[in-house]
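Quick one: co-fold with alpha-D-galactopyranose.
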Amino acid sequence: MISFDEKSGIFYLENAEVTYAFSLADGILYHLYFGRKVPHDDLRYLNRSAYCAPGEGMGENSRDRELPLYGRGDGREPMIGVTSENGNLLCEPLYKGHRVIPQPAIPGMPSTFGGETLEVTLEDEKKGLRVVLSYTLFSDTSAVTRTCRLENIGSAPLTLTRVYSFAFDLPAVPLDALSLEGAWANERTPERVALHHGVWSIDSKQASSSAILNPFAAFMTKDCTEDAGEVWGVNLVYSSSFRILANVGPHGKARIEGGINDFGFSWHLAPGEVFHAPEAVLAYSDHGLGHLSRVFHDTYREHLIPTRFVKKPRPVVINNWEATYFNFNREKLFAIIDAAAGTGIDTFVLDDGWFGDRNDDHRALGDWFVNEEKLEGGLDAIIEHCHEKGLKFGLWFEPEMVNPQSKLYEAHPDWAIHAPDYTPITMRNQYALDLTRKEVRDYIVSVVSAILDSHEIDYVKWDYNRCVTEMYSAHLAPDREGEFAHRYALGLYDLCERLVVTHPNILFEGCASGGARFDPAILAYFPQIWTSDDTDAVMRTRIQWGTSLCYPLSSMSCHASVCPNHQTGRTTPWDTRATIAHLGATGYELDVSRLSEEDLAAIPAQVDAYHEMEDLVLEGDLYRLEEPYSGRQFAVELVSKDKSHAHVTFMQLFRVFNCPPRPLKLKGLDPDALYRVEEKGLTLHGRTLMSAGLLIPVDRMKDCTCLTYRLTKV
Ligand code: GLA
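Sure, here it is.
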């Protein structure tokens, strides 16, 4: 519900759990409140007590604005930076009007959909600037999304030096900030630190959201835990260089802001032009991080991830990357397909190495032509074989890249991103292509479409194995080079529109050296993302736990692989690897033709077990029970929305000898209902399972073994 109370000048945005309110006075919008839902008119008192007349008390300049500006007296971080032709950075857009409309799309950028949007228009005629602040609410989830657009309504050009998507202020209580830090093959580890006076921030300068810091942050009260306490979460629907910050000011209040990274950013806005900021998803929970995560999960499943895939069973894939790397031929692939056939695995994915002369990672990226010498009969022979064996077929691409050793680079060296006078650096022996150029995008669309349109392909893995390091395009004017990182994102979204949206029956999986571009913007096109190149089950408990803070399990692609594990050298039981891979869009990634008879024979039961819990992976509520970072155990629970059934996964990471069985307290069940716990042959009340817990025989569990429990309401 979005409403405006003319008398008090207060805008109320309210859903089932949350109130977001701000007020209008003398043309300026003041932030009032974002938190637990409160009775509508009560906030009028906040409005009155927050207001001080000029010269009184803290003064009107310290009030929290919905659009914090530079040079208006509060000294904290502004949300926008706009320079006039004469170099003046000041602006003061004042309220002009507002409207409530069905949620519009953001031109050229992915966003959530299906909500109701409040647009508030502010104008500064002297500056020639219009700012439209947008707020979106949904009927079925308590997230609030925000974005803004800046329009040049004057006759002289403006230069944008900062465009954040949102700003809001939190009360003056000590808060912690939580972010997801990481690196290649070790992505998204939660890190919690205390906010301090000044600026805490996370960012990317890589034209991708990056493995180093995810565009997600949570700000929480000191007592906030998994299940209790207050927490505000923000997540940017953006795949390029971003920044999220908390600025604790002189009175102890934290201002939270985020959007496009302003490092190196500038945007030339000519008269009549409009600039759209990416969308930010904001969520609030007064039941700790667990509930916050469930709000994000519901929002992404209902209002972001393509509806045609989001709740449909995903393919159970066999991917040949860890099985063969580049070293394969038709016979090796046939052997993998033959072994997988009949096990329940339903899709074979041919990874890197099928095109050009790509026999290692030094060459051929960009040459998207089938290597028929390596693959006798081309892709058709593989696809036909898959179909004969009852499998679908998927294919790997890395469309945004080029190797210096490639036909594409020979023909168009200028298409690789580079800056004048400096040798561009390679990463994994490759350059990124300049997606800001239309002819580059046209080429990618034509070669990738040529493959997609001439073969029966059901699935594409879209990889991205380096970040952008030289923010420069030979085709942009010198005073527009600051637009590069954002234009790269717009180029990527254009590619996605033209390749993904035009092939609606192909399921595209995102990938970026594993999880280096795991963000909501990618999820708007790709229903799932390869979570990490680390397939070790122990590491995956951590990576998948961290990722689940804001991304639903169904968005995480997870494969069982060979042991000793290729990344960590660790050996874990076969069933454990499958069980941990079941906590996402599951699959296998090893040479199944070389599995022992016993391990191969185990796959059908593993796949059946997955299908039994698949509805919970796709649509259930996630409850995190035992965090894996302490290294002892890991446990999560999935509960159906109607609480009729649930699934518990427990992993003993490290056995301590002579430990008695320990109770695992479940969550999210109907306290008064009776649940049958299949594996234990017990029937207990939800209340008992949540209070006394389910007794786990850790005394009998070896290192890295798992137990799963299915609960059904009787
Ligand atoms: C990246 C991906 C892997 C695999 C290789 C292929 O590292 O994350 O899964 O596709 O590229 O080169």
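If it helps, Residues 597-619 form the longest helix (23 residues).
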